[in-house]
Design brief:
By secondary structure, this protein is mainly α. 43% of the residues lie in helices and 8% in strands. The protein has 6 helices and 3 strands. It has helices at 5-13, 32-40, 57-72, 77-89, 94-99, 125-132; strands at residues 23-25, 45-49, 103-106. A 3-stranded mixed sheet has the order 1-2-3, sandwiched between helices. Helix 2 (32-40) links the parallel strand 1 (23-25) and strand 2. Helix 1 packs across helix 2 and helix 3 (57-72) packs antiparallel against helix 4 (77-89). The longest helix has 16 residues, at 57-72. It is globular, with a radius of gyration of 18 Å. The termini are far apart. The relative contact order is 0.14.
Length: 143
């Protein structure tokens, strides 16, 4: 079953007087048109990729890492979006730099000053282990 745009909007809105979903991230190539359907359903912040652009998997991972990290640190949606794009535009990898401007925040010109994690969200135990190098092991120490 292929879902049409208006069906997606009905699914998202169905019986609600107010849209509860505040952020959607479509971390995939050619996702702008789909993103516009989420905006039409009342989602305030939608991250997607221009319809005429393809982005590398590595670019999507880097963007997501810094975007969600910035949100978790208490940045607003616009600032977090810029963090995601900046990590790509400053990359040593030319293809990642090329992908930086492919990401789009909808609605264009919208108010994206909302902070989704006021005061910054606490880190999880898994994140702490990853940062300490204890989750997957540490590199061997010099003998």
């Amino acid at each position: 079953h292929v879902m049409k745009g208006h069906e997606l909007q009905q699914l998202l809105v169905g019986g609600q007087t107010k849209q509860c979903i505040r952020l959607v991230v479509l971390n995939a190539c050619h996702s702008l048109t789909l993103g516009q359907h989420f905006v039409a359903a009342g989602i305030r912040h939608v991250v997607c990729v221009s319809d005429d652009k393809e982005v590398r998997d590595g670019s999507c991972r880097l963007f997501a890492r810094d975007f969600f990290g910035a949100l978790r640190a208490g940045r607003n949606v616009q600032e977090a979006f810029e963090c995601g794009r900046t990590v790509l535009s400053c990359s040593e990898e030319p293809m990642y730099r090329q992908d930086a401007n492919s990401f789009v925040l909808l609605p264009k010109g919208g108010d994206h000053s909302e902070v989704l994690a006021p005061g910054g969200a606490p880190r999880t135990a898994v994140e702490d282990e990853v940062n300490r190098g204890t989750l997957w092991g540490r590199p061997p120490t010099a003998v």
